[in-house]
Design a protein that fits this description.
The complex is a heterodimer.
Chain A (H helix, E strand, L loop, with lengths): L1 H6 L19 E6 L5 E6 L3 E7 L13 E8 L4 E3 L4 E3 L5 E4 L7 E6 L4 E14 L23 E17 L9 E4 L5 E5 L3 E6 L7 E5 L12 E6 L6 E6 L4 E5 L11 E3 L12 H4 L4 E4 L5 E5 L3 E6 L8 E4 L8 H6 L9 E3 L5 E5 L4 E6 L5 E5 L16 E2 L9 E2 L11 E4 L5 E6 L2 E6 L8
Chain B lengths: L1 H21 L7 H29 L21 H17 L1 H17 L9 H10 L5 H5 L11 H17 L22 H11 L2
Helix pairs in contact in B: 1-2, 2-4, 2-8, 3-4, 7-8
Classes of the chains: A mainly beta, B mainly alpha.
Chain lengths: 447, 206
C-alpha cells in the first residue's frame, strides 16, 4: 500500500497533471473525528485513508498543523451476492468516527451492505532483548545464551495498526446510504432505502429494525429514505430524510418501531416553481444536525435549507446553491448529473454552512451576515499559503473578468463530499480523486 | 409538437436509463429507479396533454361521439384485470371529457403517417408485430421504445414495459391533463399512483 500513500498525498503543492482518474481512487466520503485531529476518507475502491494533523511546533511555525497520511487500509472488498446474482460494490459510502474512549481510535465504515468497525492503534515501542530470539526473531542457538536478561521496551518508528473488530453484515436488503453513531456511544444506526436498523457496537449477529417504510405492495412505493442521523445530544432522537423532500424526527422512546414520526418537517411546494423535474430535485441528499442540536441542515439538488426543530412548517433559511441550473434540468437529466447527491456541513459554531457544486466549486453561506462565497478547489488556484479567490458564475448581463459562464461549467468535476473541522476553520474538500484541505488561521470576513 | 417530441424523447431516455441501470455494478438502485419512473410518468402526462392540445388545434371540434364501449381491440397484451375498469373509464371519459374521447378516436386514423415518422426505425419490427395483432392500435402504443437489444438479451423487460406502457396509455391520466396538475397547499403524501405502481413493478421485477 506504500505507493498508494504517495498518490493520495494531500495537495499542498503542485503535482504532475493527473488528468486520468482511476475510478477506484474517486473519494466517496470524508469525515473528521471528534477532535479534528484525524481525517478519514473512503474511496470507490474500498480503501480508507486516514490523515493526522501534525502538532504545531514552535520550531517550524510555517507548518501550521498540516495533515499528513497516517494510515491506509483496505476496508471493503467487492463481493458477490449469489442469491440475487448481484455484485456488491466495495465503495465506501460513509465513515463515522466513534468518540475516543482510550488510546485507540475507532471508526465505522460501510459499503452498500456491510458495516465494519475498525480499531486503529499505534505502536511506538517494541520489546528488545529476548533471551531465546535474536533481533530478527530467529531462535538463538542455546549454546550462545550465557545469561538471562529482561526484555526492555525501546522506542521505534511509529507503526499504525488497523484491525477489523466487528463486522455487521446481513442487516440490509437495500443499499445502505448512511450510518450514525448515537450519543450514548453504545449504539449506532444504519439506514438503507426502506429501513433503518439500530445496532449495538458490541453485537454483530442481530440488529433492531426501528423504521420500515416498505409498503406491503411494492407497487405502492412512493418515497425512499435518503439520509439519517442521530441527534447529537438526545440519544432517543433521530431524523431521516426522504426522496420527497421531507424530514421525519423520531423518538425511540415512543415505540419500538418508529414508523410514526414525532415531527414531520415538510415545506409546501411552490406551485410557481413546479417543473417537469421538480419531484426529483426536491429529494434530500443529506441531512445534518447542527452542533447545538437545535437546527438541521438539508441539501437538495439546488438548495440548502436550515430547519428549526421547533418549526415543522417550513425551513427557517433557504440558500440557493446554483439556481442557474434550474433552466438546465433537462440536460442535467440526460447526463445523469441531476441524480448527484451533494453533502452539506456546519462549521463548529453553526454560523456558516458549506456545500459542494460543479466545476470543483464549493459554496459557503454565513447565516448571520447572509453573505455567501463561491470558491474553487483546483490545483491551479491552490498554491500553498495562497488565499482562495472567490469565483462567480455569470448567468447573463454584465460579465466580469474571471467569471465563468454557466455553459462552460465542467459537470464532471463535482464536489459531493465536504467536511468541516469540529472546532476550527479547517475544511476538507473531496474533488473526484483529490483531497483539498483549506485552513483559515485568521477569522477573515467572508466576501 | 415540440413538446410532444421532447416528452417522447425523455420517455425514451428514461427507459434506456432504467434498462442501463440494471447492468450497473451493485445492482438496481431503488431510489434511482423510483426517480426514473417519476420522470417517465411526468413525461407521459406531458406527452398526452400536449397531444390533446395539438389535436384540438389541428382539427375543429366535431360532434362528440362516444367510442365503442367495448374495450379497445389492442388489448391483447393487457392484463385482464385492467380490461373492465378501463371500459368503465372509457365510458366515464366519454361523458366527462369529450375532447379527449375524440382524441382517442381521431388519433388512430390520423397518426399512422405522422407519428410513425417520429419513431426510430429500430422499433419498426415490434410495431409491425403489434399492428398485425390489432387493426386499430393506438399511436401511443407505437411510441413505446423497447431497448434495442430487447429481443436479444432481455425480452422480458421489454415485454413488461410494453404491457405497462400500453395499459397506462390506454387508461390515460386519471386527472385532467392540465399541466401542472393542481396541488393542494397542504402537503400530503401522494396517493399511490397506478401508473407509477405499474412502472415500479416493472422495476422491482428486475
Amino acid at each position: 500500500m506504500g505507493e498508494d500513500t504517495d498518490t493520495r498525498k494531500i495537495n499542498h503543492s503542485f503535482l504532475r497533471d493527473h488528468s486520468y482518474v482511476t475510478e477506484a481512487d474517486i473519494i466517496s466520503t470524508v469525515e473528521f473525528n471528534h477532535t479534528g485531529e484525524l481525517l478519514a476518507t473512503g474511496d470507490k475502491g474500498g480503501r480508507v485513508v486516514i490523515f493526522q494533523r501534525e502538532p504545531e511546533s514552535k520550531n517550524a511555525p510555517h507548518s501550521q498543523g498540516e495533515y499528513d497520511v497516517y494510515s491506509t487500509f483496505q476496508s471493503h472488498e467487492p463481493e458477490f451476492d449469489y442469491l440475487k446474482s448481484l455484485e456488491i460494490e466495495e465503495k465506501i459510502n460513509k465513515i463515522k468516527w466513534l468518540p475516543q474512549q482510550n488510546a485507540a481510535h475507532s471508526l465505522l465504515s460501510t459499503n452498500d451492505k456491510t458495516i465494519k468497525l475498525w480499531k486503529i492503534t499505534e505502536r511506538d515501542k517494541r520489546p528488545e532483548g529476548y533471551n531465546l530470539k535474536d533481533e530478527e526473531g530467529k531462535l538463538k542457538d542455546l549454546s550462545t545464551v550465557t545469561s538471562l536478561q529482561v526484555p526492555v521496551l525501546k522506542p521505534m518508528d511509529l507503526m499504525v495498526e488497523v484491525s477489523p473488530r466487528r463486522i455487521f453484515a446481513n442487516g440490509h436488503t437495500y443499499h445502505i446510504n448512511s450510518i450514525s453513531v448515537n450519543s450514548d456511544c453504545e449504539t449506532y444506526m444504519s439506514a438503507d432505502d426502506l429501513r433503518i436498523n439500530l445496532w449495538h457496537l458490541a453485537v454483530t449477529d442481530r440488529s433492531f429494525n426501528i423504521v420500515d417504510i416498505k409498503p406491503a405492495n411494492m407497487e405502492d412505493l412512493t418515497e425512499v429514505i435518503t439520509a439519517s442521523e442521530f441527534h447529537p445530544h438526545h440519544c432517543n432522537l433521530f431524523v431521516y430524510s426522504s426522496s420527497k423532500g421531507s424530514l421525519r424526527l423520531c423518538d425511540m422512546r415512543a415505540a419500538a418501531l418508529c414508523d410514526k414520526h414525532s415531527k414531520l418537517f415538510e415545506e409546501p411546494e411552490d406551485p410557481s416553481s413546479r417543473s417537469f423535474f421538480s419531484e426529483i430535485i426536491s429529494s434530500v441528499s443529506d441531512v445534518k444536525f447542527s452542533h447545538s442540536g437545535r437546527y438541521m441542515l438539508t441539501r437538495d439538488y439546488l438548495t440548502v435549507k436550515v430547519w428549526d426543530l421547533n418549526m415543522e412548517a417550513r425551513p427557517i433559511e433557504t440558500y440557493q446553491v446554483h439556481d442557474y441550473l434550474r433552466s438546465k434540468l433537462c440536460s442535467l437529466y440526460e447526463n445523469d448529473c441531476i441524480f448527484d447527491k451533494f453533502e452539506c456541513a456546519w462549521n463548529g459554531s453553526d454560523s456558516v454552512i458549506m456545500t459542494g457544486a460543479y466545476n470543483n466549486f464549493f459554496r459557503m453561506f454565513d447565516r448571520n451576515s447572509k453573505r455567501d462565497v463561491t470558491l474553487e478547489a483546483s490545483r491551479e488556484s491552490s498554491k500553498p499559503r495562497a488565499v482562495l479567490k472567490p469565483r462567480r458564475v455569470c448567468i447573463g448581463g454584465k460579465r466580469r473578468r474571471d467569471d465563468i459562464s454557466v455553459d462552460s461549467l465542467d459537470f464532471a468535476k463535482k464536489i459531493l463530499h465536504t467536511a468541516w473541522h469540529p472546532a476550527e476553520n479547517i475544511i476538507a474538500i473531496a474533488a473526484t480523486n483529490n483531497l483539498y484541505i483549506f485552513q483559515d488561521k485568521v477569522n477573515s470576513d467572508m466576501h | 409538437m415540440e413538446v410532444q417530441k421532447e416528452a417522447q424523447r425523455i420517455m425514451t431516455l428514461s427507459v434506456w436509463k432504467m434498462y442501463h441501470s440494471r447492468m450497473q455494478r451493485g445492482g438496481l438502485r431503488l431510489h434511482r429507479s423510483l426517480q426514473l419512473s417519476l420522470v417517465m410518468r411526468s413525461a407521459r402526462e406531458l406527452y398526452l396533454s400536449a397531444k390533446v392540445e395539438a389535436l384540438d388545434l389541428e382539427t375543429p371540434s366535431t360532434p362528440t361521439r362516444c367510442p365503442p364501449l367495448s374495450p379497445e381491440p389492442m388489448d391483447t397484451q393487457e392484463d385482464e384485470e385492467e380490461a373492465s375498469p378501463r371500459a368503465a373509464e372509457t365510458l366515464a371519459r366519454c361523458s366527462a371529457h369529450p375532447a379527449r374521447v375524440g382524441r382517442k378516436r381521431r388519433s388512430s386514423s390520423l397518426s399512422n403517417g405522422v407519428d410513425a415518422g417520429l419513431v426510430p426505425s429500430k422499433k419498426a419490427r415490434l410495431e409491425e408485430k403489434e399492428e398485425a395483432e390489432d387493426a386499430s392500435s393506438e399511436v401511443p402504443d407505437r411510441l413505446l421504445p423497447p431497448p434495442a437489444q430487447a429481443e436479444g438479451a432481455f425480452p422480458n423487460l421489454a415485454r413488461v414495459l410494453q404491457r405497462s406502457f400500453s395499459g397506462l396509455l390506454n387508461r390515460g391520466p386519471t386527472a385532467p391533463p392540465t399541466a401542472p396538475p393542481a396541488r393542494d397547499a397542504k402537503p400530503v403524501c401522494r396517493p399511490a399512483d397506478p401508473v407509477l405502481s405499474v412502472l415500479v413493478r416493472a422495476v422491482v421485477a428486475f
